[in-house]
């Protein structure tokens, strides 16, 4: 995530918390972000022991939810390459929920890696991006219990912090024609905001999502800002996270995140510094957007 400028398009939700149907298990959501950002996972740097522990946790949850996969054990291995340098092996975790109406696909994703350790200092990455990963697991749980119209691919990407390498590997070896993907929903940093704001990027390119975003925002106690996709006077986050490689291939996306805060890429990005109410509300809003897209886009 990069520092942003003020945006013109502001959409406010004034509904009280009670209007939410609370589709997400809030206790599990908070317990998951706490575990994923704990010292025991040592910042989840790609190829580290903590990263391996996080991956095992994700795979076990996918199995417990009854997800299927096009990849044995939910695992997609790929090489970590930067230029001509081979850095080792990364691991994406990919679950799948078959659609009840169409074989077209929604891809819901978040990266689970972070910066790891520098010396003895742990960069826990609670907001970046244990938050997106925990939301991913909760959204997967809801969709597993409430089968969607579209098929849904649930993706926990590795090596985002090394240049979106996990997402690039997924696009390169995607198990279906990319034309089947009707939407990519990416979550990266969604658990804190000093001004109660969540950002949604992508409607400049893919305006078909605007109504679903506004419908979800209309009942939310937090506000949603549409933009930062390169319009005049705005920053461009259209390739800032794992949705980028899909966007480069013309696959429609929405990217949910918050603006940079003082703990971004700092050892102070810890569970204690997330804002739990905001995180729960943001996760609910994202799920409502996904449900709206699933139920209306052919």
UniProtKB/TrEMBL annotation:
InterPro entries: M28_fam (IPR045175), Peptidase_M28 (IPR007484). Residues 92-289 form the Peptidase M28 domain. It holds the Pfam family Peptidase_M28. Signal peptide: none annotated. PANTHER family: METALLOPEPTIDASE M28 FAMILY MEMBER (PTHR12147), PEPTIDASE M28 DOMAIN-CONTAINING PROTEIN (PTHR12147:SF26). This is M28 family peptidase. The lineage of its organism: Bacteria, Pseudomonadati, Bacteroidota, Cytophagia, Cytophagales.
């Amino acid at each position: 995530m990069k520092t942003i400028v003020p945006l013109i398009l502001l959409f406010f939700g004034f509904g009280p918390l009670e209007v939410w149907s609370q589709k997400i298990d809030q206790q599990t959501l908070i317990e998951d972000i706490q575990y994923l950002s704990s010292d025991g996972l040592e910042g989840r740097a790609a190829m580290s022991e903590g990263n391996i522990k996080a991956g095992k946790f994700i795979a076990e949850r996918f199995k417990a939810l009854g997800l299927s996969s096009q990849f044995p054990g939910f695992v997609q291995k790929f090489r970590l390459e930067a230029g001509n340098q081979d850095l080792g092996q990364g691991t994406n975790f990919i679950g799948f929920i078959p659609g009840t109406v169409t074989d077209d696909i929604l891809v819901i994703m978040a990266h689970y890696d972070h910066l790891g350790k520098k010396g003895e200092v742990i960069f826990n990455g609670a907001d970046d991006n244990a938050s997106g990963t925990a939301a991913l697991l909760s959204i997967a749980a809801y969709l597993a219990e409430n089968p969607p119209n579209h098929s849904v691919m649930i993706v926990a990407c590795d090596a985002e912090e090394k240049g979106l390498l996990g997402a690039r590997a997924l696009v390169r070896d995607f198990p279906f024609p990319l034309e089947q993907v009707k939407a990519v929903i990416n979550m990266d940093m969604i658990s804190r905001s000093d001004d109660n704001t969540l950002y949604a990027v992508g409607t400049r390119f893919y305006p078909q999502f605007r109504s679903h975003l506004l419908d979800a925002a209309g009942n939310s106690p937090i506000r949603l800002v549409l933009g930062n996709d390169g319009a005049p006077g705005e920053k461009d986050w259209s390739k800032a996270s794992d949705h980028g490689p899909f966007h480069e291939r013309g696959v429609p996306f929405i990217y949910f995140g918050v603006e940079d805060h003082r703990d971004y890429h700092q050892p102070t990005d810890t569970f204690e510094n997330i804002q739990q109410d905001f995180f729960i509300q943001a996760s609910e809003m994202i799920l409502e957007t996904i449900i709206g897209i699933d139920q209306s886009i052919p």
